[in-house]
Amino acid sequence: MSQGGAIESPESPDYPFTGPAALEPPAEWERLRLRCPVSRVSLPSGDEATLVTRYDDVKQVLSDSRFGRALSAPDAARISDTESGGLFNSELSTTLPQSGEGHQRWRRLVNRWFTAKRMAALRPGIEAMAERLVDEMVEHGQPADLKAAVGFPLPVWVICDMLGVPAEDRDRFAHWSDSLLNLTRYTQEEVETAQAEFFAYLGGHIAEKRERPGEDLLSELITSTDSAGELMSDRMLVATGLGLLVAGHETTANMIGKMVAMLLADRRRWERLVADPSLVRTAVEESLRFDPNPGLGMVRYLDEEVVVGGERLPSGTTVMCSMASANRDDGAFTEAATMDIGRSPNPHLAFGSGAHSCLGQALARTELQVVLAVLLRKLPSLELAVPSDDLRRVEGLVVGGLREVPVRW
């Protein structure tokens, strides 16, 4: 038996899948949706998991509280090729409450910083920073790497400002978060070193905030009680800060690059946006839905038997949700294989669904919308500096992205 609850099979394909090019989806998505929507796959660790690829099944798993996140369970599949199985299988992943009322209390505390009202207040500052970064990119000349010049520094600046940590430490954050999001790139020793350094850094930062609080999220969380009247422990504060730093820059930085690359890969999309900037919001949502290179997906663990897509999944099953495949399901979206920047409504699952949907999705949407609007206004002639088929993927990490996005104007 493999960890994950099923008999190992040589037919189980390696997961995550890769497409023929960085902006093309893997053929396996459509094949599995049509023929085997609940299937077995082999993870980078060598353990097996159950993969769901259809929209309705993915939404069911993500919305059903019976699918938990206890991937530290002895029979849960290990994700990465390190001995520990990576961040999802670590003790760190269970520091924060993973389900039930405890999880909801934690979300309510943190969510105060991600409300629509707060995003509206942040937008002018994000726009000013985006304009500054684009101006600096232009000053340095073309061709330029849009990801390095704009896609990475903008979300890092935003989340560092929210947490009250120095943005000049962003290169350290990038290394630490890459290590924690490892699939095949780093050794067990490198991952453990990064985690220890990250914990020590944030622990020291929180200690400073106790002495000299500021107007930032961590300073507020130190003194805030949840609905049960409880304060966060130092370990929960560190885990919260770490999770927000990793999620707050890694995924959005990659998505900025992918969004712009997808829109520029077919010049008609970009020209339609230049002619009608009111489509920015729907273009962002469609970019999120159409993302061909999102990374691993979301992982869940069953401690009771559940039926999904007509298949009976036993207790102890590790379930992998491919939101990207679900987002290309013709049963949920008209002409799902076509990128329509005016698509509305667009109930994609890029941010998950249910009680564990992405807490920072309002911030991510704000950043994506602002960057796109600024680029359309300041650089309407923007184009890829290489053929789209020559774009290179980020390899070996839980998140998907492009190594660089060469552009000219």
From TrEMBL:
Taxonomic superkingdom: Bacteria
SUPFAM superfamilies named among the record's database cross-references: Cytochrome P450
Molecular function GO terms recorded: heme binding; iron ion binding; monooxygenase activity; oxidoreductase activity, acting on paired donors, with incorporation or reduction of molecular oxygen
Cofactor: heme
Keywords annotated in UniProt: Heme, Iron, Metal-binding, Monooxygenase, Oxidoreductase
Similarity remark: Belongs to the cytochrome P450 family.
Name recorded for this polypeptide: Cytochrome P450
Lineage start: Bacteria, Bacillati, Actinomycetota, Actinomycetes, Pseudonocardiales
